[in-house]
Amino acid sequence: MIRRAARAAARGDGVAFRHLPAESLGIGALITALVALGQISTSLYTPSLPSLAQALHATQQQANLTLSLFLIGFAPAQLVIGTLSDRYGRRPVLMIGLLAYIAASFACALAPTIGILLLGRFVQGIAACTGPVLSRAIVRDIYGAERSATALAYVGAALAISPAVAPIIGGYLQLWYGWRSAFLLQTALGIVLCLASHWLLPETRLADPPGRRRRFAVTTRSVHWRVLSEPGYLANTLAVAWVFAGLMAYTVSGPFIFIDQMGLSPQHFGMLAIVTVAGYLAGSLTAARLSRRRQPHQLMPLGLLLTVTGGVAASAFAIASGGTPAIPEIVVPMAIFCAGVGIVFAAGIAGALAPFPEVAGTASAWLGFLQMAVAAAATTVLGAFEMASATPMALALLISAGLATACYMAFGRGRHRQQ
Q1: 319-336 tens-digit pLDDT
Q2: DSSP-based three-state secondary structure for 155
């Protein structure tokens, strides 16, 4: 049935969730977990950042690099992973990536110095990208251009659990066992996902027609150019990339603002994620409901408007308070921002992948590469600032939302030209 769904998706038909067999619920849960792999790898250990820096005799800037280097490794590797999955299939590439993730996570848990940890995080980022890249391609394989936005919105709604739960778990792990336990848990997660993928996940990429494999290597460059020369693809992809950069700015700044400056405990900091995740969940569910009647390019303006509203509110509170706003003046604007992110992710990713059924892996790879590259650059720049106030983080939210909107407008508002 999954194979039949993939064939329908290649024609652009897609299939409804209710038409998939009962075991597709397990596949849906697996896809959600794979999409969340990069997110969990960043948010699970963030409550331990101050403690990690102290234990390894590192500076705040070096501790922040554990996130930046993860993103730097994550970003370019997606281009290789996506292209290989179009050539050899989703399943074998995913299995190799998950095995590498397990090894890198365990190396991070045992790291004796900040240098070894930074290297481990870089390799972990390379391996972790297989989850999100191939999951997006699998969704496009199965559900087609018309239903991908709804599918991705429901995945996003389920995905909202991880940024709420992961920091809370990370906070208690830090309290009870120390910073290394977060990476041991990531190792265990990698093992579970590897076994589940082996048992549950079928191959969704359509078989190559005769002679296709020989031509594929020759036309790889033209495939990449076809993707990157599509204005609608760039509009959606850059909008997704910039709102994600804003989300990462909050992720990397939050621990130092709330724990170091405001005196919250790691576990209480983790609980703050419930507010922002509620916003993300609301945005994802809104996108899922509206996408049944509206096209992705009709949903994007609402999502972008919410991110700009959140950025403006956060910046206004931070500046008015001299850089020391109250906790609600940070988390409530961030919840509004995250509601916009939920809509932008669902509509933007679906809109970007819509015209590329035969090379969904490559299209997903470039989307992920640009998303992570922009986020890595943004967090690296932000990491150069001491988090003595909330103003740099708040302005980063506003700038990222503004650039997302500007890119979306500049490249044709997500409308694809006729192929």
Answers
A1: 998 888 888 999 999 999
A2: helix
